[in-house]
Amino acid sequence: MSRARSDVRRLPEKQVRDRAVLEALLDAALVAHVAVVDGSQPYVVPLAFAREGDRLLVHGSTASRAFRALATGAPTCATVTVVDGLVVARSQFESSMRYRSAMILGSFAALHNGDKERGLQVLAARLLPGLEGARPPSAKELRATTVLELVIEEWSLKVSDGHAEDDASDLDRPVWAGVVPLQHTWGAPEPAPDLAPGLEVPPAVASWPEGRA
Amino acid sequence: MSRARSDVRRLPEKQVRDRAVLEALLDAALVAHVAVVDGSQPYVVPLAFAREGDRLLVHGSTASRAFRALATGAPTCATVTVVDGLVVARSQFESSMRYRSAMILGSFAALHNGDKERGLQVLAARLLPGLEGARPPSAKELRATTVLELVIEEWSLKVSDGHAEDDASDLDRPVWAGVVPLQHTWGAPEPAPDLAPGLEVPPAVASWPEGRA
User: Nearest Cβ partner of B97 from A30, A105, A172?
Assistant: First the structure.
């Protein structure tokens, strides 16, 4: 069987090929860590992103070195990770984490004109769902913004969602083993100091899904 | 003034040069996203890490391609990001996130013998603080494990912890603005299915600091 470069080789039993699980992770996470190479020096840049169908969308300043480099279509990797807990084993060697991590290989391409404006609306709707009242970008703001898309075609996904698998010889060690979940929840909204009087927190915020991270 | 390649150029007002703030972020975060370049293809690999003084420690399998590549001392970048909330502005353009993100440039080096064993103890103590009862690695497990360190020397840190700075002309727009914090908290521990009877959750778990992510 041929192996793709996106295949999981370490801990292959944690590889998940179900695209629905990938999409659920991409819809929960807020930030992708994206590779930008400059000569022999790689950089890893955290970028807010949104999934739109089979694409990952990111936006940034047209003046950003990272965005200019990514817009050239250089090979990149966008990795999206959510830590779901710590796995406490009876041995240090078997202790680990619960996590979901996706790696997407490919190249970004810049969106233009109507596609770019649509991309920004998708980003706004995904990152701040239900808050339609914010002013859309002006022509000047649009000119200052780059929107890039990455097709989700070559990807791998690792999910660790179980318990430690201690050696049988460690099972009678008198120490606790289990999982301590790490939860990502919304706190109480803090109004802006310059908020006009009489404006309440939008009801949509109260229905934002938990688990975004 | 000369600029270092690790200097923040976009949104320089968010650059923080206080090493204590950097260290607090590194001590809160559980995962670094690390660049590994293979030919023209960069990869971004999520790695559990621990800070020990002025070093970042990571551990993995000696069979891991990423660890073998990093152990050669190739130039890399380790980026550590925690998302602290969503910033809701009166314009889409000014909407953003609260976050802390550190970028560390340099090269990993492998630890050996006593340094490697000490590194693993630091990782265990930092990732699962207070749980000293787990069995330390056997000679075989040690041979199967690579421990790498990265000196925290060339780094940059961006912190966004405020509110949106909307244009004056947007301030009377009748929409809410503020911050919705994203909190990272421990859930109720789940005992392993094969846990021996009578073992309670260690008291140390109850005192783990919140905000790890």
Answer: A30
